[in-house]
Design a protein that fits this description.
four-stranded antiparallel β-sheet; Methylamine Dehydrogenase, Chain H; mainly beta; 12 strands
Amino acid sequence: MKLACLSDAQYPDILTANQGTDSAPTTLGLSILRHDPAQPGAFLAATTLDTGDYLSSSVAVGGSLAGTYLAVANQGAPGWPGSISVFRPDAAHPGDFLAPDRYEGFYGPSAVAIGNVGGATALLSADGGTFLRWEASGQPGVFGATIQLRQ
C-alpha cells in the first residue's frame, strides 16, 4: 500500500493504492479517505475507485490548470504487463473523479509520479525502466505515447 495526500489543506484527504485480497476484493484499487469537516483530524469512510487493473502499488497526485489528477501504478495480474490508471476531475461534480484512463505498462509498473517538468505536465513510471508520457496538447489529463528514458 502506498499513501499520498490529496490536498495541502490543514486537514488533507488521504489516498491509498490497494493491492486488495481475495477475502476483501472491494479494497482493490484506489481508496480515498476524506477528512471529516465536522471532526477535524478524523476521516469519513473510505471510497474505493476501480483502477481497472490488479495489484495497485503506488499513487501520485498532480495536475495542471485544468485540475488535480490521480495516477495509480498497477502491477497487473500474472502474465499481464500492468498499467497506469489516471483519474481526471469530474467538472460536473467537484471533488469527484471520472473513470480512469489506462495506459498499458511493460513489465508491471511499481511506482508512478505526476507533475510539472519544464512547464508541462508529465507522467513518470517505474516499469522495468523509467518511462515518461507528456500531457497531450489541449487535452488536460490525457497523456501521449510512452518515451523510455535512458538510465
